[in-house]
């Protein structure tokens, strides 16, 4: 299974929600150019990804899952 990048995840979430990158950046309080640059690098803190999800009316889930089913 091919791993997708944070940029791809956000792009797909934006497409699904019908929101533009400009709209999202404005709601985050980040200049569109700065948001585009961060998107290229994919450097977002977990809290930022959770805020993006909240704005998109979604949920960002990040955890470790072990073979025995344990999730941390």
Task: Name the average pLDDT.
Answer: 92
Separate helix tally: 4
Distance between the amino and carboxyl termini: 22 Å
Low-confidence stretches: none
Number of beta strands: 0
- Gross morphology: elongated
Oligomer: single chain
Could you give a short account of the major beta sheet? Answer: none
Q: What is the ordering of alpha helices and beta strands? A: HHHH
Q: What structural category do the secondary elements indicate?
A: mainly alpha
Radius of gyration: 13 Å
Question: DSSP strand (E) fraction?
Answer: under 5%
Helical fraction equals 55-70%
Plain-language structure description:
The protein has 72 residues and is mainly alpha-helical. The chain is built from four helices and no strands. The protein has helices at 6-17, 21-28, 32-41, 46-55. The protein is elongated.
Which key phrases capture this entry?
elongated; mainly alpha; 56% helix; 0% strand; 72 residues; single chain; 4 helices
How are the secondary structure elements laid out?
Elements: H1 6-17, H2 21-28, H3 32-41, H4 46-55
Helix pairs in contact: 2-3
What's the short version?
The chain has 72 residues and is an all-alpha fold. The chain is 56% helix and 0% strand. α2 (21-28) packs across α3 (32-41).
């Amino acid at each position: 299974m091919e791993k997708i990048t944070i940029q791809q995840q956000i792009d797909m979430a934006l497409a699904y929600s019908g929101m533009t990158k400009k709209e999202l950046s404005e709601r985050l309080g980040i200049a569109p150019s700065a948001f585009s640059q961060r998107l290229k690098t994919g450097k977002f803190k977990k809290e930022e990804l959770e805020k993006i999800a909240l704005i998109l009316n979604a949920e960002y889930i990040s955890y470790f899952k072990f073979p025995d089913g344990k999730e941390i």
